[in-house]
Write a structure and sequence with these properties.
This protein is of the alpha+beta class. Helix content is 52%, strand content 14%. It has one domain (4-128). Strand 2 (39-46) and strand 3 (54-59) form a beta hairpin.
Length: 132
């Protein structure tokens, strides 16, 4: 198998492990699903070997989504703060749910790093992946 989609799928497998999620899809796959499954946005990422960042999502069953709705809303609030470059606020939101949500625990570490060494003024919220 060859091509950009195959390369991205391979990269997302590694990103999935880094965020401690079970399944991850790209924005293109989400669009093609047409709302068949609920998803939560996990991150804007830049993967090795690809110039443009990609938004990735975690798909789940409706039952799981409904059961986790408050946690997912808290995660989304933290993600919005992270994207806006408000790392202390994002950290506070992610810390509140990190014990129940592996991706939130990943953001706790990332927000701590960024709070200590803030990015340049051109911050765009993209998490640059340095591993394949």
């Amino acid at each position: 198998m060859l091509g950009d989609s195959v390369n991205l799928a391979s990269r997302l497998e590694g990103v999935n492990k880094q965020f401690k999620t079970y399944t991850m899809i790209s924005a293109m796959v989400k669009e093609r699903l047409g709302g068949a499954f609920p998803v939560r946005e996990v991150s804007r990422i830049a993967v090795v070997g690809r110039k443009e960042p990609v938004i990735v999502y975690e798909p789940m069953t409706q039952e799981s989504f409904d059961a986790r709705r408050p946690l997912l809303q808290a995660f989304d609030a933290g993600l919005r703060q992270y994207y806006a470059g408000r790392f202390p606020e994002a950290l506070r939101l992610f810390e509140a749910i990190a014990a129940q949500d592996p991706p939130a625990s990943c953001y706790v570490e990332k927000c701590r790093e960024l709070a200590l060494a803030p990015p340049d003024a051109g911050w765009n919220g993209v998490w640059v992946m340095t591993q394949k």
